[in-house]
Design goal:
There is one protein chain. The chain is α/β, with parallel strands linked by helices and 277 residues long. It is 31% helix and 19% strand. The chain has a 9-stranded mixed sheet with strand order 5-4-3-2-6-1-7-9-8. About 13% of the residues have low confidence.
């Protein structure tokens, strides 16, 4: 396998394994003590990665909150904040004026697929594939329902102009875009790219689909979980690892390395991911 960063997957979850409610609005789960732990974890890495749903639904800052920790990073010759990395299906899912892009200062890196899925490309003329994946989030409320129902039916001119406008705005904001993979982002290649960009330690903060794919591909070294004394329920609420799932025989094995009990009843569990056979 090509060189890649050391990857720590960190989540806060309810007792029933949910990392958010069915509303998917970034429900508060961590205690104050755990938020401080995560801040220190961010300060210890070169980059923080999230998936497309997390970027759109939560628009996270992903910065180091503690001025002391930022100063310590700078004293070690590092930027005040780690780089922010997003894996998304379309640039149109990003808000050039949102917190993910603007909060910092921090380097911002975005991975998108080099091509859209064949099923979507087949509905558009050659050369319009990039515009086909246009998500409704940045096309205006009046277009949202139509875009969700059938994005390929949007006028070619509208989709193309929206795509180019967003791309230009992101470029002006200093966002670095890497197009890797056919139909979906090649996560193995993305990790190799990050290593080539100087990232040696990477923190992944969700969501569930990205977590699952990274675990399935053997790209995670440690899993840290804060389990809060809460129950969310909800069949549609995201979990630590969503995706297609694995059979029992293919389950990813973890070795517990540490348990830390919080005063409010929460527990931090740290695991090492065992190599796949």
């Amino acid at each position: 396998m090509s060189a890649r960063p050391f990857v720590i997957l960190n989540v806060a979850a309810s007792v029933d394994g949910k990392i958010d409610t069915f509303q998917r609005r970034g429900a508060a789960i961590s205690s104050q003590r755990d938020r401080e732990r995560v801040d220190a974890l961010r300060a210890s890495v070169d980059a923080v990665m999230v998936g497309g749903h997390t970027v759109v639904d939560e628009d996270p800052r992903l910065t180091v909150k503690s001025a002391e920790l930022r100063a310590d990073r700078q004293a070690r010759g590092l930027p005040a904040n780690p780089a922010k990395v997003a894996v998304t299906s379309s640039l149109l899912r990003l808000n050039p004026k949102g917190r993910f892009v603007t909060a910092g200062p921090a380097r911002v890196i975005v991975f998108i697929a080099a091509t859209t899925p064949a099923s979507m490309r087949a509905t558009l003329p050659e050369g319009q594939a990039d515009a086909a994946s246009a998500a409704p989030a940045r096309l205006g409320e009046e277009m949202a329902d139509a875009a969700s129902a059938a994005p390929a039916t949007l006028s070619e001119e509208m989709a193309y102009e929206a795509s180019e406008s967003t791309r230009a705005a992101l470029a002006q904001a200093g966002v670095e875009v890497f197009a890797i993979g056919e139909g979906r982002v090649d996560l193995c290649a993305a990790m190799t790219t990050l290593y080539g960009q100087g990232m040696r330690r990477l923190l992944v903060e969700g969501g569930g689909s990205l977590n699952f794919e990274l675990l399935r591909l053997g790209l995670v070294d440690e899993v840290h979980v804060f389990v809060a004394p809460l129950v969310f329920g909800g069949a549609s609420a995201p979990t630590l690892a969503d995706g297609a799932g694995l059979a029992r025989a293919a389950a990813i094995r973890l070795t517990q390395t540490e348990v830390d009990v919080d005063d409010d009843g929460g527990v931090v569990l740290r695991y090492k991911v065992e190599p796949r056979e």
